[in-house]
Amino acid sequence: MFPENSTYDPKQAAKTITSEYEETRKTMARTAISQYLITVTENLKAQQAALKKKLKSRETTMKTFATKTLVSSMDEALTGKAADAADTYLTDTVKKPDFDNPIQGV
After folding, report:
1. What is d(CA 78, CA 50) in angstroms, rounded to the nearest whole number?
2. Taking the CB of residue 52, how many other CB atoms lie within 10 A of it?
3. Cα–Cα distance between 93 and 23 in angstroms, integer?
């Protein structure tokens, strides 16, 4: 099968095949990890966007509650200058909350 002067060494060939196999496995593992990280990052970006939308909605809801709903409820309970002061405080002083998105750096 092989010429007599051949330098074919079955042990060396087995080592080469094993080495190439291990390198292929490492490459496949790196690729799998890379794809996993890409998937996780994309999922986090989607969650971040959804949470941002919810937080903005809650900020608006809270501001509306403080400046409109609570003011109209206080008008029924308070009269005179106390009602005016509560109305002014709630409509002018209370700021819209700014909720920080806990999902950062994605």
Report:
1. 40
2. 13
3. 65
The kind and range of the H/E element at 81 are: helix 80-88
- pTM beyond 0.70: the answer is no
Residue 67 has what DSSP assignment?
I
pLDDT in tens, 20-68: 999 999 999 999 999 999 999 999 999 999 999 999 999 999 999 988 8
User: Could you identify the residue written with the tokens 């790196």?
Assistant: 30
Domain coordinates in residue numbering, the chain: 10-93
Give the number of residues written for the chain. Answer: 106
Q: How far, in Å, CA of 28 to CA of 26, rounded?
A: 5
